[in-house]
Amino acid sequence: MLWFDGAISNDPRAGFDLRDRGLLLGDGLFETLVVANGRAFMLDAHLDRLLAGAAALNIPVDRASLRRPVDDLTAALPDGGIIRLTLTRGAGPRGLRPPASPQPTIFATASGPWSPNPTAAEMRLATARIRRNPHSPTSRYKTLAYLDNVLALQEALDQGADDALLLETGGHLACTSAGNIFVLQGESLLTPSLDNGVLPGITRALVLDVVAPELGLIPQEVSLSRDSLFQADAVFLTNSVVLVTHATELDGKPLSRTGQETVEHIRAKLLALMR
């Protein structure tokens, strides 16, 4: 299902300006949201992040324009689903120089239904050779420039893993190709700090600010080494679609699942918030 130019269509093909900088240069942003119980979960937080990215990239857009396609598609997904909202700078002349008066393009796609798995899924990780650049704006905003993530994931798949673990240029943990990473050590819940080239995930923030305190865990944003994953009671990943995933293996070596019950409690809390 596609929303484009104010209308919903089941034909994914749409008239699109081939000069669009999102297509040619990756000059844009996106958000992925889950629709459940008739609502787009954490919609305001997703729009806040998209608007912050648009301000940083100097793409002029207002909240109402971004919300309209989400509201229209949510109403068309009675059984729930997943919406991807995309914003580009719009068409421009040849070259890198942004247009003086950009006319942004907004479109969204949706698929459904969506329902959570009974328990958290499991994921085998492989350390990618590609490094995350903590000094790049593309590490802090959800831009269309996702080729590093695509290549890292392909590398992991070629090694028989399910997802790629990305380190930043200094060798500290950053994230996976599609989510944030958490390390459980006793009552401490650790996650890489934003200074390590980490995208400020919506589910990440929920775990740190809401779920961890409710479960008596001590959340900390710190710099972590790859070896810290082998010393953890449990390692898990978060994103807005799967919520929580157990990391069970890294580079062919098993990761501890001593804290698996706590991870399931975290996931249950997130599902309760969604309901």
Through-space gap between termini: 24 Å
Largest sheet: 9 strands, mixed
**Large-scale geometry:** globular
- Count of separate DSSP helical elements: 6
Radius of gyration: 19 Å
| Secondary-structure element series | EEHEEHHEEEHEEEEHEEEEH
Features of this protein?
globular; 6 helices; 31% strand; alpha+beta; 275 residues
Describe this structure as you would to a colleague.
The protein is of the alpha+beta class. Helix content is 27%, strand content 31%. It contains 6 helices and 15 strands. The strands form 2 sheets. Strands 7, 8, 9, 10, 11, 12, 13, 14 and 15 form a 9-stranded mixed sheet that branches. A 6-stranded antiparallel sheet has the order 2-1-6-5-3-4. It is globular, with a radius of gyration of 19 Å.
Summarize this structure briefly:
By secondary structure, this protein is α+β, with helices and mostly antiparallel strands. It has helices at residues 21-25, 43-57, 63-75, 147-158, 202-214, 260-274, and strands at residues 2-4, 7-9, 28-36, 39-40, 81-88, 105-111, 121-132, 163-168, 173-176, 180-185, 188-192, 218-222, 234-239, 243-250, 253-254. The strands form two sheets. Strands 7, 8, 9, 10, 11, 12, 13, 14 and 15 form a nine-stranded mixed β-sheet that branches.
